[in-house]
Amino acid sequence: MRSLKLGFATIAVVFALSATAQADCVKIGAVGQAVTHDIAVLFSTHGLANVIYGQGRVGKGPVHTKCDDASTMTTCHSSQMACKVTTPKPCIGAWLCL
Q1: In the chain, where do the E strands start and end?
Q2: In the chain, fewer beta carbons within 10 Å around the N or the C end?
Q3: What is the pTM of this model?
Q4: Does position 95 have pLDDT exceeding 90, yes or no?
């Protein structure tokens, strides 16, 4: 009976720790807009990386990018799950993090 109680306590601790670890993960998004499709993708993905870094997070999983091509400009939206690992960094916009 004692080992059964210890087993349930261990399982409860594991679930509690996994829930707190997942609580520090959020979905981050960034937008890039340019005249060409390739430059808009570059702006959105690199902007996303800088925003994640600036928040003291690290990206987990794939980066999802979706672009809308208009007549003159292309707008791309990139998003990725990111988890907290350090303190936030001082950033000026999405492109310059110190």
Answers
A1: 25-34, 57-69, 74-84, 91-92, 96-97
A2: N
A3: 0.68
A4: no
